[in-house]
Design brief:
The complex is a heterodimer. By secondary structure, chain A is mostly helical. Helix content of chain A is 74%, strand content 1%. Chain A contains 15 helices and two strands. In chain B, helix 2 crosses helix 9 and helix 9 crosses helix 10. Classes of the chains: A mainly alpha, B mainly alpha.
């Protein structure tokens, strides 16, 4: 749905302006068109769960959750230029925080999300401090090791009382609030959608403002950024924290969606999935997170049908293909198509 | 005391494997400043080739030699076909290509050979070495093979014209090109050699951990830790670092954190080295010019 909408709304933008004139001549300015497209997308996203089966609602909820996580990774890798191969770890921390609070402390599910966010913010910030001294490959290495170690930590017998060890935890997020004409899947879909909208608006504002320009400046030329008076170290650690917070919120939501956490759901391949999603969607792009999320939810299914044996090989080939042919990802492709259409 | 000695010796044996992987990583890092995340998977795949050859009926050392040839050729091909096009791209692109490679090799191995662990023969006798209680023959063999390989590599780089050319290409590509060294091929050879070193490590470790497509993930991590500890620019340092990591991991696993959390030792070492002394024990400090 979301995949199809942006180009479709890009078309009226160009057809509204008569041929031959510049597009600023008549009709609405591009900013308004973008707002209109976003509004349409939101209306569609609100209407959709009433038209499709519960299973599809579940899948779309997963897409929304991954989109939040990918936005976090995009802020870090795409806008700030810090590579993380270990975001699955923060996803896991978020998920386990929510699960443990729900299961052991008996909190209502909505209360666990901000706590998971706060814990991941701190964890990311703390991991970001040693990461400050690392660039490029070294950072990739440190986060790579984080991604491999976390599942082992989750299985650790000393923490079994909290984490449920190898078995994991089964949780229950509770019923739909009384009086709402929704079933449980639809209810949680709207919860996730609302959180996603808030997180995307916050993220877009953050990146558009002074802080966002500083984040991008650090990526493009760290030395120039520092000499402009940007506290590179503080911004980098902070970006790491914010990124981890986004991913942690997504992790918490995913635990609440599945109502189950286990160490094997957070293997190294989750981190790779997130990386694939970010790259395919377009790393330095906010909408890229949405495209990427559709990709990592739906493409493994299709790949599974194509060849039962090696869906991950297809993932890998797609990764290589995008790197060689389309480093800007799907968001870059959309931008290109939009430009072509507008020029005509 | 005896238990501690035993831990140290088997740590040294594992350390040999980590040293090999660390060495393979350093080979590639020195010439291109890339960290090859697919190193472990390449080694794992070569080990599967050796397993297949042995299944078909080749004698062990014959299969060993053929596998090394395969590892060399595949290393060269991967460099020329997959890595070359992204050589000068931003680091994010390079890292993602390596991750893509890791995933592809891993799942192809799973597809061809399935995921059930397989036993892999050891070329060394299956009894303790001369009645020693501290070390098995295979462990000793592992150490010896690793040391031989290190000596060979050192000799190759120090005393042969090709080794000299490869060092030159890594040090200063532009000048090397001017004196007629084909830098591109030297990089490819470096990848081939890294593949060979990895394959030896894979074949030495498979009898202990059993052969399966995911066997190298942890080992790669220890290899990284070893390479970083010794200084990622320095081959001798990487080998020493690998052995050190092996001993540390085993001793810490036995007495401090328990076997379940052994991998965390690697993470702790990596982060500690990166925070305290990013250039490693034997590395040179890098100074960036503004």
């Amino acid at each position: 749905m979301a995949l199809a909408t942006p180009p479709a709304t890009a078309t009226p933008a160009s057809s509204a302006s008569p041929p031959g004139t510049r597009k600023s001549g008549t009709g609405l300015p591009p900013v308004a068109w973008r707002a209109l497209a976003t509004a349409l997308l939101l209306v569609a996203a609100c209407a959709l769960p009433f038209a499709i089966s519960n299973y599809l609602v579940f899948q779309l909820t997963l897409v929304i959750i991954y989109a939040i996580a990918l936005l976090g990774l995009n802020i870090l890798a795409g806008f700030n230029g810090q590579i993380s191969l270990g975001h699955g770890a923060f996803f896991a921390v978020g998920a386990y925080t929510a699960a443990i609070l729900l299961d052991k402390a008996g909190m209502p599910f909505w209360a666990t999300i901000p706590i998971a966010a706060a814990i991941c913010l701190v964890a990311g910030f703390l991991f970001g401090i040693p990461a400050l001294r690392l660039e490029g490959h070294y950072l990739a290495l440190a986060t790579f090791s984080l991604a491999i170690v976390v599942p082992q930590l989750l299985k650790f017998r000393g923490l079994e009382h909290w984490t449920g060890g190898v078995q994991g935890l089964v949780i229950d997020r509770g019923d739909v609030p009384a009086g709402l004409p929704l079933n449980n899947d639809q209810w949680f879909y709207f919860v996730c959608l609302a959180i996603a909208v808030v997180m995307f608006v916050l993220g877009a504002n953050l990146l558009r403002g002074r802080i966002g320009r500083a984040i991008v400046a650090i990526r493009d030329h760290p030395i120039a950024a520092a000499s402009m008076g940007i506290d590179t170290a503080r911004y980098k650690a902070m970006t790491f924290g914010i990124s981890a917070m986004y991913t942690g919120i997504a992790g918490a939501l995913s635990a609440l969606l599945a109502q189950f956490v286990s160490p094997d759901s957070f293997s190294f391949f989750l981190s790779i999935s997130l990386l694939v999603g970010a790259v395919v969607g377009g790393v330095a792009s906010i909408w890229g997170a949405v495209f990427g999320a559709f990709f990592i939810v739906y493409v493994p299914n299709w790949a599974d049908q194509l060849t039962k044996a090696a869906p991950w090989a297809i993932y890998g080939l797609v990764l290589l293909g995008f790197m060689y042919a389309m480093p800007q990802g799907l968001a870059g492709l959309m931008r290109l198509i939009g430009k072509r259409l507008a020029r005509r | 005391m005896q238990a501690l000695l035993h831990q140290i010796f088997s740590g040294l044996a594992n350390g040999g494997i980590y040293a090999s992987i660390a060495l393979a990583l350093v080979m590639i890092y020195r010439s291109t400043h890339h960290v090859n995340f697919a190193q472990g998977e390449m080694a794992m795949f070569s080990t599967y080739i050796a397993w297949t050859l042995i299944q078909v009926g080749f004698p062990y050392w014959m299969a060993f030699a053929l596998t090394l040839v395969f590892a060399f050729v595949s290393g060269v091909l991967i460099e020329r076909i997959v890595v070359r096009p992204v050589e000068d791209k931003p680091i994010l692109v390079v890292v993602i290509v390596f991750i893509g490679l890791l995933v592809i090799v891993n799942s192809i191995a799973g597809w061809l050979f399935d995921y059930t662990p397989k036993t892999f023969p050891s070329p060394f006798p299956d009894r303790p070495w001369y009645g020693s209680r501290y070390i098995s023959a295979h462990e000793l063999g592992m150490i010896v093979v690793t040391l031989c390989m290190l000596a060979l590599i050192f000799t190759f780089f120090r005393f042969t014209p090709l080794g000299l050319a490869m060092r030159a290409a890594a040090q200063n590509p532009i000048s090397s090109r001017l004196v007629g060294i084909r830098v591109g091929w030297m990089l490819a050879f470096g990848w081939g050699l890294a593949g060979v070193i990895g394959a030896v490590a894979g074949m030495m470790t498979a009898p202990i951990v059993y052969l399966d497509p995911n066997m190298m993930a942890g080992i790669l991590l220890y290899g990284f830790a070893g390479a970083l500890m010794g200084g990622i620019e320095n081959p001798v340092g990487a080998a020493v670092g690998g052995f050190l990591v092996g001993v540390l991991e085993n001793v810490a696993g036995a007495y401090v954190v328990g076997t379940e959390l052994k991998l965390s030792v690697a993470l702790a070492i990596i982060i500690a080295v990166l925070v305290v002394k990013p250039s490693g024990l034997f590395g040179k400090r890098l100074v960036t010019r503004v």
